Amino acid sequence: MEELSVSLRQIPGMVQLDNYEEIKSFLEEQMAYYKSVSYSPEDIKKAKADRAALNKLKKAITDRRLEIKKLYMEPYTVVENQAKDLVALIDEPLDLIKDFISLEDEIARNRKREQIKIWFGQMKSPLGDLADSVFESPAFYDKSWENSSATAAKCQKEIKEKVDTAARIIETIRSAGGKHTAALINKYIETFSMEETYDYRAKLESTEKIYASAEAAPDEEDRVIGYKILKINGTRRQMTQIIDQLELMGVDFDEIEDGMPGELAELSAPDFETFVAFDIETSGTYGAAYGDSPAEITEIGAVKVVNGKITERKDWLCNPGRKIVPRIAKLTGITDEMVKNKPSVGETIREFAKFVDGFNLVGHNIKNSDLHYIIKAANREGVVVDSPFFDTYLYAKKFKEQNNWENVKLEYLSQKFEIEQNEAHRAWCDAEANVGVYFRLREL
Question: What are the residues facing 344 on neighbouring strands?
Fold first, then answer.
């Protein structure tokens, strides 16, 4: 096809109001009069006459402006219409070609869909009689598999991962779902989200309570009549799986004691004034029982205190290398988008280790939570974090009953001690609030 050259002929023009300054001067003088005039009820006729005179002046200028605009737009309008006619000549065959290409693309997608069904059929056995329901779920089927850029190896890998994960989770629901098992399985297949499945179970139980007859006595097996205290030994991963199972079963439980081993020296009294208070936020996890990877750090906030005075503040957002659980993102305000271009957890833990070197660590409930993630990340990077630590949560529990506190959570104690906490559940904010809590606990 020959190259097309479009020629234009344009005659430059100029337009102006020759007596602009004269008119402006006249109007300024006239308008000064109207701005200063004051009307009384008896002057209604004069006010109407003045309004008519001003509207007449305004119309004269506006009409002239529109007249000039029309004259200057007319050449452009002619060219625009000519160009549209020329483009219309091209559009007719172009649309036919587009339709043909779209049809071929759809044929290719249909072939890919059939191939995806074949791959799924080769892997579906772990799902048993639920395989068809899983495949038909929009939450399972990834439209990107149909793209020409999606290789066979990539599609097969992702299909297998989804099938294996679904099979594990469905088996877990069958073992712990109780009378809601069928509904919970359907909800999971519909959403592929354990978070939504948990919420759905809570709604089912709430609805049952609302509509249950006040006279109907619960079955003996369903009535809560007591409790058992168990001592369970296992790895941290196993403990996570057990807790997830209990939550799915709707069991009400309290953590009385955490005997998981620590790796740092624990300080028992708040008898020092130089330290680093810190807090972390994590991605959260649905649990290993549901095929999800462990939680990872998304933020570390740290505040350095020397002789009772804050001297330095640090806040590191980091990429956890996995998706953030929606419930956790809502709680902390930290999203996947916020951390996708941030340093890795490994890089961040190195910075944190340099910051705390030689200082005691202070944190709230860090023995049972935060230190686990810090030590795991440090060990992974070959970084040494060996500072002694003091847990304000464990210390505060000693004074809970005598002060009639409802709990000893950081947010609650901050309110009790009138410590400002503008963004609770953000690491930097919680770390600084904990400095104030630490010194208030010293007074007790």
Answer: 319
Among residues 388, 379, 323, the alpha carbon closest in space to that of 346 is found at 379
Question: How far apart (Å, rounded) are the C-alpha atoms in residues 248 and 290?
Answer: 11
Please enumerate in sequence order all residues whose Cβ is within 8 A of that of 183, keeping only pairs 6 or more positions apart, or say none: 200, 204
Distance of alpha carbon 259 from alpha carbon 236, whole angstroms: 11
Q: Where do we find the tokens 């071929």?
A: 104
End-to-end CA distance of the chain: 89
Q: How confident is the model at residue 13 (pLDDT cuts 50, 70, 90)?
A: low
CATH superfamily of 275-443: Ribonuclease H-like superfamily/Ribonuclease H (3.30.420.10)
Is 329:304 a contact under the CB 8 Å cutoff? no
Q: Which residue ranges make up each domain of the chain?
A: 275-443
Backbone angles phi, psi at 432, to 5 degrees: -70, -40
* Those residues with Cβ within 8 angstroms of residue 290's Cβ, 6 or more apart along the chain or in another chain: 165, 168, 169, 172, 194, 244
In angstroms, rounded to a whole number, what is the distance separating the alpha carbons of residues 185 and 284?
22
What's the CA dihedral at 395, 401, 407, 411 to 10 degrees? -60
Provide the 3-class DSSP secondary structure of residue 386.
coil
Q: To 10 degrees, the CA torsion angle through 172, 240, 344, 302?
A: 150
pTM over 0.70: no
- How far is it, in rounded angstroms, from Cα 401 to Cα 31? 79
- Give the span between the Cα atoms of 250 and 49, in whole angstroms: 82
CA angle 213, 217, 220 (to 5 degrees): 140
Structure-token pair, residue 54: 């001003």
Query: Is the separation of the CB atoms in 385 and 353 below 8 Å?
Result: yes
Neighbours of 315 (CB within 10 A): 15
- Tens of pLDDT, residues 68-79: 888 788 888 888
User: Pairing state of beta strands 360-363 and 389-391?
Assistant: parallel
pLDDT of residue 327: 87
Classified as helix, coil or strand, 314 is strand
Per the CB < 8 A criterion, the answer to whether 376 and 282 are in contact is: no
